[in-house]
UniProtKB/TrEMBL annotation:
The keyword Nucleus does not apply. SUPFAM superfamilies: WD40 repeat-like. The lineage of its organism: Eukaryota, Sar, Alveolata, Ciliophora, Postciliodesmatophora. WD repeats lie at residues 174-215, 303-350, 351-392, 393-434, 435-476, 524-556, 566-607. PANTHER family: F-BOX AND WD REPEAT DOMAIN CONTAINING 7, WD40 REPEAT PROTEIN. Residues 17-37 form the C2H2-type domain. This is C2H2-type domain-containing protein. It comes from Stentor coeruleus.
């Protein structure tokens, strides 16, 4: 039900203000709101309420309709089935009655035909004469059934999101590069900009929308170069160990080539060849330019000649010549430019002049001149045909690391370690202007085809667009410049608010995003350290943010201004929740406390203590309770009495048995306890205490599910699963036992060290063999049973990859700083077991379903059934590829 957006007003709205983000207004508040606009002389439009479904809501609506249609069809089948059963019962009664009446008819007809009667028949005849047969009306019980009664169960509106759901559900990438942006290229049609970074990603940006479109991950190496093919079909990126070709149309990796110390890579103008540098450390003659066919992935030629690291490479527009530049701080002092004949596959010329390493090259469109930038602070122009220097451009006070020429060869743009962008008149060979807003090295520059705008990237993690006509900074690309820690979505799915920044991060911003227009709405600045959590009030009046700076800040959602600062926590604020009336807020912190705040008075009301570790997440229920979760425990608090109601330990995965019915878990807060749960029966089978005094290395279970095998440094203990008594202790054989594992129900394998391996016979309590040379234990790889999928995970996310299509199959996550306590792959089917610490959830890869199969506490299970807010503590699906 809609409610007026005015503070504390609970009346039903009748109109909305289209100039204030669709603010809902009741009859009384319309006048006050209109007066505010008129007093400030701000135009306004009060119109009818129109609520547009977001993409996510549209998807959920279709899914809900499909589920409802299915329920209706099932109800129809049930009615028909029950009516048929009722019909069968009636049919039996009728049949029996007709048979009885037919029997009576026969009896009366037989008597009527007789002339002489035996005694028995005579009595019947006299009785018939004396009696009159009368039947009652047929009596069927009245059928009074309600066949279409139904109930509507309200779904919980989970608004805690992540950068991944923002990407896949809203097509909005809010997290940009997180480390220095070192490379830049622009497409020939000026639509796209490509950047490469030390964060091991290549990102495609829409220059018109100023938004990210694609993120390509290299995973292991920093990006050393990026370029775009002339037809904008391919992106070519290089890192230290690989060159990758990305298909821009299909948004996938097209090819990859591996080498060593790659500093630069480009593609020929006809998309036939990839040219890249390789700088081996074996010797000076191992530095080479490699030409490789993109069609058949074969080597064409390796061009050798440089005796120092090759830093950059370029190709003429007619694909006739390759030009390379080299140099480093080594003693070889090869600060040369070399021209290679691509047709004849040989070196054409060596040009000298720079006194230090050459970092960048650019060739004019007529293929007559090449421009080079160097660590000697100069830019030099060379004649390719005459192989001689034309001029030297001086002005930078530190090394020149990036240069680009305009399409008409009238302008030259350079970026330098001195943090400046300089624009040069290439015809007159003189500096025209410079831009000074970057705070670190300018690593890449580009210019649009109309010579109106310059784009620059820097180690300060910014992408800036400069207007050449007024020589001013025009704008920056919209994205966080550090890890995004939190995202929250308004209940109308129109806006999202995100916070970013690690400890002592430069990016301490809170950004408001318009999910309809896919644009950045506002940037809120005020925190002195990274932002860890964000919450939005139900009436969209306030935003609350928590930070590494120990504070909670209150922001006005309409005005986008800071309204207050809540101080009290002595550690980073990890989570915030606002109650439905928007009067109270609850926060959890690294100081192991939960605090309740009054948002009207902007004061702390109470401090709740009970956690033994950092509080990662908090939530408020609909029954005057709040819950909080840390690494060790889950606690429910009473908001009225301000007391602790329930405290439960969180359990970690250890392993499961062969038929995946028995799960063994332990608690990080109680190292002396192991819990055994039966997934099928959904009950606890065993509880072992007070034995983990020595260091436990491993746990396993025999195939018959009867014995639990515990491996310690100095011993192996075997216990019955259904009993807490110790059955057998195997003392170590001189050396320490590193782990124990089952072979079968009669034998136990124990690894005593990295090199020794032994088998123990449980039947006769003797060692069977002592094997030498056994290597370190290999951890199980997370491949599915049919090897079609591979699963990768960290504390907060689980990704399922399709090995055949090389695409992401599914993305699962826990929100609001909650960590997975274990992830395991089923060996019986394509399924993943996920432990949230509160229970076990199962994701079926084939069926694309996520079921919460088991809770470790029955009271908790009941609470989850009646309280939607607890859903935040369970695994969720962010994305599924249903193809």
């Amino acid at each position: 039900m809609l409610k007026c957006s005015t503070w504390k007003c609970k009346e039903k709205p009748i109109k909305q203000c289209n100039n204030c983000n669709g603010l809902f207004l009741c009859d009384e508040c319309i006048q006050n709101h209109s007066k505010k606009h008129e007093d400030k002389n701000i135009q306004y439009d009060i119109g009818d309420i129109e609520v547009k479904l977001s993409l996510a809501e549209s998807i959920k609506l279709k899914q809900s309709i499909r589920e409802s249609i299915k329920a209706i069809k099932n109800q129809k089948k049930t009615i028909l089935s029950k009516s048929l059963a009722l019909y069968n019962d009636i049919e039996k009664i009728v049949k029996s009655a007709i048979e009885y009446l037919d029997k009576m008819l026969k009896e009366y007809k037989d008597i009527s035909k007789k002339k002489l009667f035996k005694e028995k028949d005579f009595i019947k005849a006299k009785k018939i004469i004396s009696e009159f047969l009368v039947f009652d009306d047929p009596n069927f019980p009245k059928i009074d059934g309600v066949l279409t009664k139904n109930s509507k169960i309200i779904k919980n509106n989970i608004r805690k999101s992540s950068i991944f759901t923002m990407d896949y559900n809203y097509d909005l990438k809010i997290e940009g590069h997180r480390k220095a942006i070192t490379r830049l290229a622009i497409s020939s049609d000026d639509r796209f900009v490509v950047t490469g970074s030390d964060d091991c990603t290549v990102r495609l940006w829409n220059l018109h929308k100023k938004q990210q479109e694609i993120v390509f991950e290299i995973y292991s190496d920093e990006v050393t170069s990026v370029s775009i093919s002339k037809d904008s079909h391919f992106i070519i990126s290089s890192s230290y160990s690989s060159v990758r070709v990305w298909n821009l149309y299909e948004k996938r990796q097209e090819a990859v080539f591996y080498s060593e110390a790659i500093s630069s890579a480009i593609i020929s103008n006809d998309n036939q060849f990839i040219i890249y540098t390789s700088n081996f450390t074996l010797g000076p003659m191992e530095n080479k330019v490699i030409i490789r066919s993109l069609i058949d992935n074969k080597y064409e030629v390796k061009l050798k000649g440089h005796i120092d690291s090759i830093n950059c490479v370029a190709i003429t527009s007619d694909n006739q010549f390759i030009i390379s530049g080299s140099g480093s701080y080594s003693e070889t002092d090869d600060n040369t430019i070399r021209i290679w004949n691509l047709i004849e596959k040989k070196q054409e010329a060596v040009i000298k002049g720079h006194t230090k390493a050459i970092y960048c090259l650019a060739i004019t469109n007529d293929n007559i001149h090449v421009v080079s930038g160097s660590a000697d602070n100069t830019i030099r122009v060379w004649n390719i045909l005459k192989k001689q220097q034309i001029t030297i451009l001086q002005g930078h006070i530190n090394g020149v690391v990036s240069i680009v020429l305009s399409r008409d060869n009238t302008l030259l743009v350079s970026g330098s370690v001195d943090k400046t962008v300089k624009v040069w008149n290439f015809l007159e060979k003189k500096q025209e202007t410079e831009f000074l807003d970057h705070t670190e090295t300018v690593c890449g520059v580009a210019i649009t085809s109309d010579n109106k705008f310059i784009i620059s990237v820097s180690s300060d993690i910014t992408i800036k667009i400069w207007n050449l006509s007024d020589k001013q900074l025009k704008e920056e690309f919209e994205a966080h410049e550090d890890i995004v820690n939190c995202v929250s979505i308004t209940n109308d799915y129109k806006f999202a608010v995100s916070g970013s920044g690690s400890y002592n991060s430069k990016d301490k911003r809170v950004i408001v995003w318009n999910l309809i227009n896919k644009k950045q709405e506002a940037v809120l600045e005020g925190h002195k350290n990274g932002v860890l959590t964000v919450a939005i009030s139900n009436d969209k009046r306030f935003i609350l943010t928590g930070s590494w700076d120990y504070t909670i800040r209150i922001w006005n959602f309409v005005d986008k201004t800071q309204e207050g600062v809540l101080i009290g926590h002595t550690g980073a604020v990890k989570s915030i929740a606002i109650e439905s009336e928007n009067i109270l807020a609850v926060s959890g912190s690294y100081d192991m406390t939960v605090r309740i705040w009054n948002l009207v008075s902007k004061k702390e009301e109470v401090v709740l203590k009970g956690h033994t570790a950092y509080v990662n997440s908090v939530a408020i229920t609909n029954c005057n309770q709040c819950s909080s979760i840390s690494i060790n425990e889950f606690i429910i608090w009473d908001l009225i009495s301000k007391t602790l109601l329930v405290s439960l330990q969180l359990l970690n995965f250890c392993f499961f048995n062969l038929d995946e019915s028995i799960f063994v878990l332990n608690s990080s807060s109680d190292l002396n306890t192991i819990y055994i749960w039966n997934l099928n029966q959904k009950r606890q089978e065993g509880l072992f205490k007070e034995y983990i005094r020595a260091s436990l290395i491993s746990i396993d279970i025999t195939r018959c599910n009867r014995y639990l095998v515990l491996g310690f440094k100095e011993k192996v203990i075997i216990r019955k699963v259904m009993c807490s008594k110790q059955d057998l202790m195997i003392k170590s054989y001189k050396k320490k036992v590193n782990y124990a594992e089952k072979i079968n129900d009669k034998r136990l394998a124990c690894n005593k060290s990295v090199k020794d391996y032994m088998k123990y016979n449980l039947a006769n309590n003797n060692y069977e063999a002592l094997l030498h040379g056994y290597k370190e234990r290999i951890l199980e790889k997370l491949y599915t049973k049919d090897c079609r999928f591979v699963v990768s995970y960290n504390f907060y996310t689980v990704r399922v990859w399709n090995l055949e299509s090389q695409k992401l199959k599914a993305f699962l996550y826990l929100s609001d700083n909650i960590q997975f306590r274990g992830v395991a792959i089923s060996k019986l089917e394509n399924a993943i077991y996920l432990n949230s610490g509160l229970g076990i959830s199962v994701f079926s890869i084939d069926d694309n379903t996520l079921e919460h199969e088991l809770f470790f506490d029955k009271k908790l299970e009941e609470l989850f059934k009646i309280e939607p807010s607890f859903e935040d503590y369970l695994p969720k699906i962010a994305y599924i590829d249903r193809n």
